[in-house]
Amino acid sequence: MIQYIEKIEITKDSHPFARAYEKCGFEENGYIEEEFFIHGLADVYGWKDGKRVTELPKNPYVNRILVRRPRIKERFSGNVVVEILNSTSFIDFDRCWVLTWRHMMRNGDIYIGITSKPNVIPALLKFDYQRYRALSWKNPVENPQYTLEEKDLGNMEGASFADTEDGLFWDMLTDLALLLRNPENELLGSYAPYYQYLAGWSQSGAYMIRFVNDFAYGRQLEQPYFDGYFSAGSASTCLPDLNQGYGRTAQKTPRKLKMVREPFMEVHTESENALWGNVEARGRTCFFEDMNYCIYDIPGATHDAKSTMTDYYWNDMDVFAAGIVPVYPGKEICPNDFPYEVAFHTALQLLYEWVREGKRPFEAEPIQTDPDLRNVTDETGNAAGGLRLPFVEVPLCIYHPVCTPMKPDYAFACTLFGYVEHYTRERALNLYGSKEGYLNRFSACLGECIRDGRILPEDEQICMDYAKRKAEEVFGS
Prior knowledge:
The protein is an alpha/beta fold and 477 residues long. The protein has two domains: 1-255, no CATH class; 261-477, no CATH class. Helix content is 28%, strand content 20%. It contains 15 helices and twelve strands. The chain has helices spanning 26-29, 95-107, 121-127, 129-132, 169-181, 203-214, 278-281, 306-311, 317-321, 341-357, 390-393, 411-414, 425-432, 435-451, 460-475; strands at 2-7, 31-48, 51-70, 79-84, 110-114, 195-201, 228-232, 260-269, 286-288, 291-298, 397-400, 419-422. The strands form two sheets. The chain has a ten-stranded mixed sheet, sandwiched between helices. A two-stranded antiparallel ribbon has the order 11-12. The radius of gyration is 22 Å and the shape is globular. The model has no long low-confidence stretch (mean pLDDT 96).
């Protein structure tokens, strides 16, 4: 239950963490960025005889909400995307926003981010103690006696703590969804009516599985909590339980969606299509009353990429102040620069049309894998199958899914961040004859992708600019 909402003012000396206002050009695009604290009461849940029950009712919390919206209502599209902010790096990462902000802003969508785990609060306090000192996910049990060591609490090793409680999140999320259904709500009241979608990246995609399976249909509602779901780069092995005391139960429990009545769009890169338990968790595209699910794999793309992990945060003093320095972790010279944003733009737009018009998205085959769950490559050196885009259909390089650690501490990061191996000039000439020949082939393939809906017409220039850069790198000036 939400008790009250507090707007946190933005001044020249204090602003929201990881602000998008400047780097995404809010002024010229007619957008504003706001931050709110939601004060409320949340139950903590547990299991009894296989059913969800309330173990600790009505526990106070204070959580953080980001809102990015068109300045004037006339520009609003009628789409509100709520992202479960990713906490894996111990800061609030808004990766769904980073992937789709260009499409959302040109469309006129509203974006809302909600903090998903208290492990990010120390970084927020480090960034701006005065601004964030009121945030609270206090464990309602004084001196809790867990059967697990603290490092084993929650869904990820070392990311949950005895003095806070991860399980408060579920009511925070349902409270927010119900608040948004109220046309007079304090966050977006004047913008109603609208469709609302839940989005999550990586660990947050696993949160969505838990939400849909155990909360979305737990009570009778006039409208569902969300009209559609956008799962990006999901890591199903990060599936959280009802409260942190259960530990990492996703290692031994089913992770598949049981039922989803509203459209559910899932998009994977080469990092997650068969790894992180997804080979067990993924469904197949289907359009049934109780299972509306569509999945796309993006060959060539990896979980982290140059555009989203390093370029977006270049000179971001907020992230640096919180103690994080996003870097490419590999020894190889060229980090993966596959422009996978265009695929996520397409998937998000297809979800909008699926929800609003009942238009089913097209189907695409998965990336092909061998018995050891390694992605199979074709004669170009790139992954076979998946959602075929011009970058792998008319390639000038091999997009490798992993890189070699620059130092031992980077070993895990290197499984998420691939690199690019450019073709030699000789190979490119043999394939395309000349730089102009390559660009003509790429342009023709791009046109085909736009016509059949794999790429949005608005992203044509992004794709051609990328192809021209690649042509310069391989063929020379």
